[in-house]
Every structure is written in structure tokens, then in C-alpha cells.
Amino acid sequence: MQDITGDSASDQSWIAPEGWPVMALAGGVTILLTLVWLPLGCIALGLMVWLRHTLRTPSRQVPDAEGSVLAPADGIVVDISDGEVEPPAGTDMGRGRRVTIRTGLADAQLQRSPVAGRITDNFLIPGLFRSADDVDLARRDNERREITIEIGMDAAGAGERLLLVQIGTATARQLVCRHGPGKFLEAGAPLGMPRIGGMTELFLPAGSRLSVCKGQSVVAGETIIAALPR
């Protein structure tokens, strides 16, 4: 197993880079509320402590399991497709299994690469910000970011494609991926985050064997959710 906290020195700070804008905004609000009424400032300070916990860069033990797909986000598996389904329109993928993870407001928000591979596409599709309580409605109407990863053994490798979709919710209104097309990532490497909460979907290659079930808690970069077909 390998310990992964980030892919550069700046990523090893306690707050993930994607979390600093939220912390800065929360800090400004805390100062203003303290000037207005001290008890309100104390409440805001408590919220900042909570944000610091959820926006941190946690150390993760990435398993040495070749051919496995890791959970990209902390949270609960809220949906697993019955058999193989079509990916979102416009993606260069065939039918495959779909796994949906919902990240709670108390979970660590930083997402991690589920496999070792190269990002080939990363684009944002504008939409609404409906509640995640209705998974099908949120999947259909909400804003999302589609990230395609080509699976290979090294930076020059090529293979199957896996699609990771960040889905906005009533609380997650910014979908952030820190890497663009061409970037090669190790399995478990920091990827980005929806700020904050949100859902994450994985579309796995046909023939992948799932190892999680609906309702199961998963940990980004540690929990193995599937085995690739080859």
C-alpha cells in the first residue's frame, strides 16, 4: 500500500487547494458577524472549524491492487445500475456499469483518481442544482462535469476508458477538477472536488466486476469498488 496526500508540495497543506476560496469566504463572513454581534461570530467560527475538517487533504492508504477501480469520493453508494447502461450522450464510451456515490456535508470533499490513467476529456455541462434526494432527477437536470480517463499502465499506455461525472446539487454549485486533458494520474491521486457535497458517478467498462453494494460507505482512494475486465 502507498500513502498519498497530494501530487505536489502545495497539495500537502491541511486544506486542499480547491477548499481555500471557501475558507476565505467563510473567514470574511466570520469577521463581519463578529463585528455585528459576538455570539454570531462564535457560531460562524464553529462553521469554519467544520469546513476545515471537510475541505482537508486527508492521508490515504492506496491499495496495491492492479486492475482495480478505487472509490473517487467519500460517501455512500446510493445507486448501482441494473446491468450495463448507456453513458451520457456525447461521450466516447460504450455501455457499462454505473455506480453513484453521494458525498455528505460531513465527509472529506477531496476527490481522487479511481485508476491510473490519462485524462482525455474534461468539460462542464451547465444545468440546474436540484436536491440530490431524487438521484434520477439530479442526474438528468443538474450541472455536471464529465472527466474521461484512459486507463494505461504508465504515461504512454493506452487501454479502456472510464468516465467520472461530478454532479452538482443544492449545496454543490462549483464542480472543480484541477487537471486538464493530457494529465497522467496515479490511482488515488487528488483530482478535485464539488464545493461542497454533491454526487459522483463512475461509468465502468463493460465486463467490470463490482465489489460494492447499494448503501455501502466508501472512502476515496482506499475502497475498491470494482475490478476491470482485464
Structure description:
- The chain has helices at residues 20-36, 38-54, 135-141, and strands at 2-4, 60-62, 68-70, 75-80, 98-102, 111-112, 117-125, 144-151, 161-167, 174-177, 184-185, 190-195, 199-203, 209-210, 217-218, 224-227.
- The two termini are 21 Å apart.
- The protein is of the alpha+beta class and 230 residues long.
- 39% of the residues are buried.
- The protein has an eight-stranded antiparallel β-sheet with strand order 11-7-8-9-13-5-4-15, with helices on one face.
Short description:
With 230 residues, the protein is of the alpha+beta class. Helix content is 18%, strand content 31%.
Write the layout of secondary structure elements.
Elements: E1 2-4, H1 20-36, H2 38-54, E2 60-62, E3 68-70, E4 75-80, E5 98-102, E6 111-112, E7 117-125, H3 135-141, E8 144-151, E9 161-167, E10 174-177, E11 184-185, E12 190-195, E13 199-203, E14 209-210, E15 217-218, E16 224-227
Antiparallel strand pairs: 1-2, 3-16, 4-5, 4-15, 5-13, 6-12, 7-8, 7-11, 8-9, 9-13, 10-12, 14-16
